[in-house]
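can u do me a favor
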């Protein structure tokens, strides 16, 4: 079931622009992290405080039809705001190409997190640097289509 409601674009101009370009092109444009060549997906969720629809671009970490959503925030001391959105409502939409799909995410830990963390670092090596910058363990959600 789609996530409907009032869309509140990111306050960050480059995130807003990337999401808009990705969606408008069906994933054929703005599908990498800036000029890195590393693939991203668009994740749609509901804001835990506002109830508004929120959209972000995250690194594409996919394995066997499941996706990892890594709450790195560049190694900042606190989790990104969207982390709280997913805890409050694990129903998201993931767009990896032309068509978004409904997914349910869950926070992983222990050995399962370790496996997904390794996959995330393989997809985007700077995650390792981000983890070294912070005392918190960077959270990883895993989602699959429903």
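np, heres the sequence
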């Amino acid at each position: 079931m789609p996530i409907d409601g009032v869309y509140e674009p990111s306050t960050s101009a480059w995130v807003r622009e990337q999401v808009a370009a990705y969606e408008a092109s069906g994933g054929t444009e703005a599908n990498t992290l800036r000029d890195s060549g590393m693939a991203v997906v668009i994740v749609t969720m509901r804001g835990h405080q506002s109830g508004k629809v929120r959209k972000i671009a995250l690194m594409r970490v996919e394995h066997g039809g499941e996706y990892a959503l890594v709450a790195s925030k560049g190694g900042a001391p606190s989790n990104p705001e969207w982390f709280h959105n997913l805890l409050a409502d694990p129903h998201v939409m993931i767009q990896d190409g032309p068509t978004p799909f409904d997914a349910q995410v869950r926070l992983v830990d222990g050995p399962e997190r370790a496996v997904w963390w390794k996959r995330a670092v393989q997809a985007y090596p700077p995650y390792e640097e981000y983890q070294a910058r912070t005392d918190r363990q960077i959270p990883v959600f895993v989602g699959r289509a429903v």
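The mean pLDDT is 96. hope that helps!!
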